[in-house]
Structures are given as C-alpha cells and as structure tokens.
Amino acid sequence: MADTTKSAKADDDITFGDLTEQNEAPQSTDQEDPESVLASFRKEWRRELESHGSSTPGTPSRSHPCHPRLPQVNQSQEESLESLNSDDGVETDGESNAVNNTSDKKVDDVCSDIELKATELFNRAVELEQSKRLYEAIQHYRRAMTLVPDIEFRVHRKSMLERNEVDTEESLQEEDLSREEFQDLIARFQLLVASTHAVCIPQFEQEAPHISCLPPEMLDRIMCWVVGNDLDMRSLEQVAQACRGFYLVARNPEIWHKACLRVWGINCGLPGPYGSWREMFIERPHPRYNGCYISRTTYFRQGDCSFQDQNYQPWHLVQYYRYVRFFTDGTVSMLTTPEEPQSVVSHLRTRDSKISQVVRGHYRIHGSVISLLLKKKARERNSNRRKGRRHFGGTTDVAETIFQIEYDLRSPKDRLHWILAWRNYIISYITYDNKKTVTDVDVNDVNKFPTLAFSRVKSYALVSDVPLC
C-alpha cells in the first residue's frame, strides 16, 4: 500500500485509486476486467487482514464495523485518476452509476466478510472458554472485537432470532400434527396393528400367555369392566396410553355409545354436532361420577347473653359442608354436616350410606340444568300406652320433607362440568295430618348458598362391581 495518505474521499475516488495502483499506468486501466480487479482487491484485503490478525492486537478500533479498512489513496493515484477522467472529456451518467454500484458492492462484500471472520473468532473464543483455555479465549475475543467492536451483541441477537425461528417452526409443526395427523390417528394405528395381526406385542419373553393372545371381543369386555357401572372413563383414557392397540380398543365407539346411553337414556340422541360418541360424552353437560360436589358455608350467629353477666354478648362462628354425590342410575345423595371432607367422602361411595343424615333422591338432566328431588322421612310415629297415657315418639309433627333443587352445571376454564351453581331451592313439609307447607328459599345470596365444586375421590374408582352394559 502507499505510504502517504490523504483525507477521506468519495467511494469513486477510492475505487479508481485501486485501479491505478494495480495497473501503474492509466492507459491500460480501461482494458482491465472489473472481475479481475475485484478479485485482486479481495486478495490484497485478505493479505492485510491476516497480517493484522497475526500481530499482537492493541486497543480495539473505534471505527464503525460496517466500514472496512480500505486501501489508502496517494497523490500519484489521485493524479492518475484525474488524467483518467479527463481522457474523454466528459463522463456519461451511465458509466458513473456503474462505477458507484461496483464500489458499493465491494464495500458490502468486505463488510460481510469482516463480520463473518469476527463471528468465527468469537465462536471459537466461546469454545475455548468452555474448555477452560482462558488465555487463548481472550486472544480470540480481542481479535474479534478489533474487527467488529459490538460482535458480542450481534452474535447474541442472531442466535436469539434463530432460536425464535426454530420455536416458531416447532409450534407450527405441532399445530399441523394436532390438526392433520391426529385426525386420522385411529386409521394410522389400525394399519399398524393390521400389519402385525395383534393388538399388542410383548416387550419381554414370558412363559404365561400374553394379553395379546386374547381375541378382540374379550378385550372389549375387559374395557367394559375398566369403565364399570360408575363410568370411570378416566381409567379408560389411562389404559389407552399403554400402546397403540389399547388406544384403538379404548376408542371403540360402542363403549362410548353405551356410556352416553347410561347418562342420558332415551334422550341421548345422535352425536351429530359433536362428531363422535366420545366427544359427545366429554363436551355435553352431565355430572361427574368419580367424586362428589362440595361446598362450605360460613356465617356468624349471635348467641344468648349469660345470666351471670348481661353485658357479655357472645357470637358463634357456624361452618358446615354440603356434599352432593351423583350416581349413574339417576340417584343422588346429599349430606349437610359440619364434618370435614376427609371423614365424610368415604361414606358416600355407595348408595346405601350408613349415615342417617344422608338425604336420597333422583335427578334429571335438562341441558345444563340438573333437577334434584330428594325426600327425607321422619322417624316412624310410635304410639305406646304408658300409665294410661299415649306417648308419641319424636318432637315434631313433620312426617316427610321434600327438597326440590335446581343446579346450573358450569365449566370454568378447562375444567368441564366442575361447578354446581344454585338456581332454585324449594322445601316442602308434610305433616302427619297430610298438611303441606311450601317454602321457596332465596338462593341469590352467594354467602349463604355458595357454589359446589367437584372433588375427585380415588376410592370411588378402585373397584368395579359391574361391567358397563
């Protein structure tokens, strides 16, 4: 390169200065090929870059990284440039634009090459640092920052963009799988199972017969036992996760059709808007059977003054729970007690509970509304003669109490059929004289009548007494 330098000039001057330097005579410049000129420029730049990288780097350059260090223009090059421009008198606009474009391309190429070299040095420094070769890592960091001072931020930004692109592609692929592939997942599994001629294949060799030896009819019967009379569809979904063959058996539409008939009976209809019996059972409103709905009511009640201290006014904190347990045969049990759920839910597993306070009845489903009709009978009225007087058992004349309740079945967020909201509550008292008193209870007060939330009870699905039929 030339020893003497002048102040910064336009890109055109630099470009033509390089041309005159390579050819030494302005008369032969017009005959040179631009591609060869560009190639020679790149070679000289790489030679300068290698010599600069091999030397001990000092303080990082403060020049902008997008502007590479181009060869300086000396006075002889400027004179040759002027003589070159004055050969033909006036230069056309097309030739000037072509020269400008060539110069811009050179600058862009050099800029990209410098950044690429700096990125390679920075990545190599990261690898050396991870391998605990700190001295060599520092040298590579210095060389990279000498070429591009903000190379660390550029590499980080580039890696973040690539990571976002990968995440976007993965999310799009997952959406495509969920939309397209899972739609024909059953058909694909059927082809795979048909090729092996078996529902499943044993993973390890065993002497006893494997479950894959059973015929499909027997496997369907086993799945009906898994579901049971209490419609434990959660256990059926867990069985479907075992293998492809069990997935197909658990997705048998006949099993889900029986479950829908068990819930809605003659009002079941067809799964037209839902697409399948399984989707109908999952999305159509109905109570859950593998647990019970629980609510807790808390309020303060004013107590009686003590006869010893009339100025003392006691207050009582009253807290009680309401439990509602639905069964698949249309029966329902309700219990109101101050006992905690841990000690109560086990007694509501069967229809015939040993707790005397349990009220039993029936329920009907009307869309998202569940209507309950429960009856509670008083103790039998016994008449005994004692010393010539008639004694009646009990302290009330009410022979029977009827509860008519309507709940609105709601699904908060992703919990389907999880909440029972009060809709209507009517209590009827029937005396021994066949007199009836009806009381319409206001259920708009949420504090007195809170919603009932579902709670799954594991013990309800431990044993299956009767298969689904």
Short description:
Residues 211-262 form the F-box domain. With 469 residues, this protein is an alpha+beta fold. It contains twelve helices and eleven strands.
Descriptive tags:
single chain; 469 residues; alpha+beta; eight-stranded antiparallel beta barrel; two-stranded antiparallel sheet; 11 strands
Task: Describe the protein's architecture and organization.
The structure is a single chain. The chain contains twelve helices and eleven strands. Helix 1 crosses helix 3. The chain has an eight-stranded antiparallel beta barrel with strand order 1-2-3-4-5-8-9-11. The protein has a two-stranded antiparallel sheet with strand order 6-7. With 469 residues, it is α+β, with helices and mostly antiparallel strands. Among the domains are: 139 residues, no CATH class; 171 residues, no CATH class. 40% of the residues lie in helices and 20% in strands. A hairpin with a 2-residue loop joins strand 6 and strand 7.
Give the SSE string: HHHHHHHHHHHHEEEEEEEEEEE
Overall mean confidence score, pLDDT: 77
Question: How much strand content do the residues show?
Answer: 15-25%
- Strand line-up of the largest beta sheet: 1-2-3-4-5-8-9-11
